[in-house]
Specification:
Elements lengths: L5 E4 L16 E5 L2 H8 L5 E4 L13 E3 L8 H11 L4 E5 L6 H16 L3 E5 L3 E13 L6 E6 L3 E8 L5 E7 L8 E2 L5 E15 L11 E2 L1
Parallel strand pairs: 1-2, 1-5, 2-3, 3-4, 5-6
Antiparallel strand pairs: 6-7, 7-12, 7-13, 8-11, 8-12, 9-10, 9-12
Length: 218
């Protein structure tokens, strides 16, 4: 059965909203993401933010206004609301580009969610980014394009990469050496797994629909 998805649209670079919410999904606009949803004709179930990007509070029947002085980013606040609603699968759009600090904050958010055994995908211009903590992600043999694997924790141990152009077996990756850049799908069933620690995994958009089953957490 397909997981229900909480879609979050931020105010970063709009690389296209290529999703159509299905019954049971939930759409949250984080501040300026509301304009992107309006332009695409996608209904937002919730608006949240301090609205420093929109510069106005939209007329909507479900709005949460945040204080401009806060610890959480608007995107993190949106994720918290999705978790309260019972969602465990998040797709974040318009969360890259623009100010680099917001992109970095969203990468940290990916790692935080994976460490809670929650799934999250960050959709960029030409790629999708996810995080994996003590688990495995698998792709079908028809996945294409590039895939890169980075240690996000100080080190990630027991890293195995199978079925890709370059493979690893029980390796240790550290977050100060990018050994996992620009691997490739080669027409085989493939997987990336980690026994301990957190990985960031960057892969081509074409491969998103080729994920085999669920991300498995140990």
């Amino acid at each position: 059965m397909r997981d229900k998805i909480c879609y979050i649209v931020g105010a970063g670079e709009n690389c296209g909203l290529d999703f159509a919410p299905k019954q049971g999904d939930y759409v949250i606009a984080a501040d300026g993401g509301y304009k992107y949803l309006q332009q695409k004709g996608i209904k937002a179930d919730l608006l949240i933010g301090d609205f420093d990007t929109l510069h106005y509070k939209p007329a909507h029947n479900n709005v949460i206004t945040l204080n401009k002085i806060k610890d959480d980013t608007d995107t993190l606040a949106a994720v918290r609301e999705g978790i309260k609603k019972g969602y465990s699968n998040f797709h974040i759009y318009c969360g890259t580009g623009g100010r680099i600090e917001h992109t970095l904050a969203n990468l940290q958010l990916l790692a935080s969610l994976s460490q809670q055994n929650l799934k999250c995908f960050l959709f960029g211009k030409d790629c999708i980014i996810t995080a994996l903590t003590k688990g495995e992600i698998r792709f079908n043999c028809d996945a294409t394009g590039y895939i890169s694997v980075f240690a996000f924790s100080d080190k990630a141990t027991g890293v195995c990469i199978k079925g890709l152009k370059y493979q690893l077996d029980n390796a240790t990756l550290i977050n100060s050496f990018p050994i996992g850049v620009s691997n490739e799908f080669v027409g085989k069933i493939s997987s990336v797994s980690v026994a301990n620690g957190t990985l960031l995994i960057v892969f081509s958009k074409e491969a998103m629909g080729k994920i085999s089953g669920e991300i498995f957490y140990c």
